Amino acid sequence: MSTDSTTDDNSGDTGTGTDTDANRTDDTVKTLNTVDQTDVGLFELTRSKLLLGALLLSGIAGSGLARRALAEAGYNDLGVIIYTLGYAGMVFAVWFGWIRPLDITGPTGRWDCSEERKFNEQVT
């Protein structure tokens, strides 16, 4: 459904003060470019995703390898401390950098069914 009231016959149009197809095309291209720049795919590698992957890898595998190396060198207790601090630090960093900024609160206030009834009456 289109609400455009312009006609295709622009033989007498001088191009001043009217909405031409060229202007609408330029606006459409600008809109499409804006959408393309803000639409980031789920599997697209971004700097944030790479940093998260490196943090997880170093926090889990890195501290595990350090614990193993220290245990083989005879410093088993120090290895356990290093592993615990490395893993806990990774969990804190992931929470602080990626989970904490998320807005995961529910709706506030109490739901009022009278507003829904008013809306349904307006629609019908």
General description of the model:
The chain is mainly α. The chain has a domain at 59-99. It contains four helices and no strands. Helix 2 (47-72) runs antiparallel to helix 3 (76-99). It starts with 20 loop residues before the first helix and ends with a helix.
Features:
single chain, 4 helices, mainly alpha, 124 residues
Question: In short, what is this structure?
Answer:
By secondary structure, the protein is an all-alpha fold.
Distance between the termini: 20 Å
Q: Estimate percent helicity.
A: 55-70%
Overall geometry comes to elongated
> What's the main sheet like?
none
Overall structural class, as computed from helix and strand content, comes to mainly alpha
How much of the sequence lies in strands comes to under 5%
Encode the helix/strand succession as letters: HHHH
> What's the number of helices?
4
List low-confidence stretches: none
- Total beta strands: 0
Radius of gyration computed on alpha carbons: 29 Å
Averaged pLDDT:
77
